[in-house]
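Example 3.2
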Amino acid sequence: MSFEYMLPPKWVIDEKMPSTEGTNLEFKEAFRLKGAMQTSLPKYRETLIGLLNVGGGYLVLGVTNKGVIQGMEESDDDTLDKFRVWVDAQYGSLLYRDGSRLDPQLTSLKVKVFPVEQTDRRVIAIEAFNTMDSLQIQTGSGEIIYRLNASNYKLRTEPIYRHRDVQGLIRTVQIQMQGIIKEQHDTIRKMNEKHHVEMARALQVEKERNEKAMRLMIHSLSANLYGTGLSSPIGICNRLKRFVCCIVK
């Protein structure tokens, strides 16, 4: 929707605007980059969001509340550049109700500058353009602002996450928790495997030590018994082995 009919073809000081303030049009006398500007900008922001949520319109700076063109005293190029940066920042902070960023082909804020004839002053008109349905734009904190009869209203305040897929958010958290649990289980399993390997190695060393001690004992007994003439070393060793094996079993 075009609202250009609300703006005059020429900007002449002390002349009246062709349209009065309303849902799609707001007048402000001026802003100052220092001091007063800092207190005015939040109100300008609300007006711009409100204009977007009713399909578009203009915020005009340099016009009195009664619609008389005065122009802005502080409208040098440096000030205008800083103001454009501020407008771009406001645009970048807004979201559609589904949480997605604004599409510049469907929604935009544009700064237009007009000279006031026979003066060194200028008028700034911020054009709000939106082809989306009404009340579809909000701040990151969930504020939806709209305009009615030259006033701004806040429809509601709700965090943006409540408009998103809550089940999907819960599922994401579950997946992250499952990953943490799996990592802990893997760590415990590796510790158990390491423990089992160390235990098996210790048992093997102990087994080899016992077998070596057994061989030495058998050899010693065999030698002693053989010296007494009781039997042959081979027969004694065989009997001792069978006896030890029976004990081990």
